Amino acid sequence: MRKKGAAAIGETKRRYILHIDMNAFYCSVHAAEQPELYSGKPTGVAGSVELRKGILVTSSYEARARGVRTGMTVRQAMQLCPDLTIIAPDFDLYRKYSKGFMRIAGNYTPMVEAVSIDECFLDVTGSGQFGTPVEIAETIRSRVKNELSLPCSIGVAPNKLLAKMASDMRKPDAVTVLRRRDVPALLWGKPCQTLYGIGSKTADKLLRLNIRTIGELAAADERMLIDRFGVYGAWMKRAAHGIDDSPVEPLAEAAKSIGHTTTLPADLTQKEQFRRVLLNLADQTTRRLRRHGMMCSTIQITIRDPSMKTITRAAGLAAPTDISEDVYKEACRLMDANWREGDPVRLLGITLQNLSPKQETAVQLDLFTFEETPKRDKLATVMDRLRDKFGEGAVLTAGMLGDDPSSLIRNKKLRGTSLEKDFLRGPQTDDENDY
């Protein structure tokens, strides 16, 4: 018989998580700043006000009611809503209001994880002195409305997954509670793509397996899902049941740089070998960058030859990033420009510099990558969650594996060595620093 107060095997401590999602954030900020111009009117924010082919990055709810949607060109939006007011983005203003609602959230718990400039998670499990989780959520919503003149939707749930989905259920300016016991009734009838973490391509693959709804995903055979999707399949089934163990991770004191170096067990001389190591280093450094909630603007590589001669080379990026592909491409460019193929390399390293908090970095409005950036961010987030749960080797990019991983190590001296294993499971670094 279990003692009173003891946890049963498999039970976890009850958590109370909030997800705050600022509604139509950019347009709402402009309405708060200049209500006489924008409040209650159809508005949209676009990077190019003059050019009618500019892309809308958000629109007010009044504009959405007229059919205006994010991603439309200004011309398309104006055809649907001729009285639409187009506003040029003001990054400094958005950062000011972002800090404002984050400050309010931080009054109720130190456990605040900023996801982007307009959303965050809060763990209020230990915040009972401020009331129940729903009371805390209502207080925050009211304060954001009264002090900043901004609407927000807040989800209240036992985990981050359900809190995020709850905040999407009622917009704008609402508090929604979603419990695990409510998942079958409220979520199982919805399409798979509505489950946070599942994109359109994965939903299409599930559809080909005759899995249309979240309920059908919850009932699907886990072994079949793992066979088709790897560990991501196991995650999807758990998510369909409303299960998510990922913690709220507050941003610690900002690091000035994040670096990884690795000493190779044998000298490398071929470009494709360098690139395999750089790919792994880029993956590891950007993973830690995202964990800190930061973005980088400068990439530095370190190269050391067998005589211990060491050089470092750095370059700035066109736009801040936390995506491994961007870091990898720039690291390869630096390597190609500063090292001659055929010369032996004993050590390689990548350091990310000029870091800035992601929620304060105005990169979301880059019109040239507007459609691709959210997809890449979402993929990176899912991969990070899978690795957190199943280990670093759970998910590898195609570039890390190749069609025939062993064929990628052309130097026969490296076959069967630790380097070959490193290529398959990610780098085992000598040095990883957050300065």
Q: Can you describe what's shown?
A:
With 435 residues, the protein is α+β, with helices and mostly antiparallel strands. The protein is built from 17 helices and 13 strands. It has helices at 25-33, 35-38, 61-64, 74-80, 91-106, 133-148, 160-169, 183-186, 200-208, 214-219, 222-229, 231-240, 271-291, 324-338, 372-390, 398-401, 418-425, and strands at residues 17-22, 43-46, 56-59, 85-87, 112-116, 119-123, 152-157, 174-177, 258-268, 294-304, 310-321, 345-357, 431-434. The protein has a five-stranded mixed β-sheet with strand order 5-6-1-7-8. The chain starts with 16 loop residues before the first strand and ends with a strand.
Relevant terms:
single chain; 435 residues; alpha+beta; five-stranded mixed β-sheet; five-stranded antiparallel β-sheet; 17 helices; 13 strands; 39% helix; 20% strand; globular
Kindly summarize this structure in a few lines:
The chain is of the alpha+beta class and 435 residues long.
